[in-house]
Amino acid sequence: MKLGVLGSGEVGRRLAQGFAAKGHEVVLGTGSPDKPELVGLGVPTGSFEDAAFHADIAILAANGEAAPELVASLEGQLAGKVLLDVTNPFSHDETGPYLWTRGTSLGELIQRAAPSVRVVKAFNTVGNPLMIDPPGGPYRMLIAGDDTSAKSDASAFIEAAGWTPVDIGSIRESIGLEGMALAWVAYGRASGDWNGVGTIV
Description:
Structural class: alpha/beta
Strand order of the largest sheet: 3-2-1-4-5-8-9-10
Oligomer: single chain
Strand content: 15-25%
CATH architecture: 3-Layer(aba) Sandwich
Largest sheet: 8 strands, mixed
């Protein structure tokens, strides 16, 4: 399968390498082609447009605040495709991380920004070292989205990554998944364990 990963941070790089190791044709899209971390990655890189055009399935692993605008700018390349939304709307103040969205979810904002893209929220509730073939799995991966066939396509892809997908409803349910991710961050901060099961169910 042709996979486009949108975002070259730690999460994007981990997913790109993990799925490439499973035999997928991956292009990693980045806005920072000179980033030192991309040297020797072993995955082809290009612009966000390159990765979106290449993709049968795309994975959104970009900065949360920039994500809706980025997806809207790529709607022409992503129209009709499944987009796995891995993002979380985290900001920080003196007390620690919080969700900057209020009364809605980042998943919903992304779907509204690009209505022709088939957004499925997934992979956002666990740390990136556990995203591909979590040890001791398969565990359940909660997913949400408005398009039933997109969730079916995403589920087959998620199963191949070592998870058992569980459909919890429409993209509105992303607000719960993003809250779970915040709980995972609080757990990591309190325990110092960022590689434990956290909010895997």
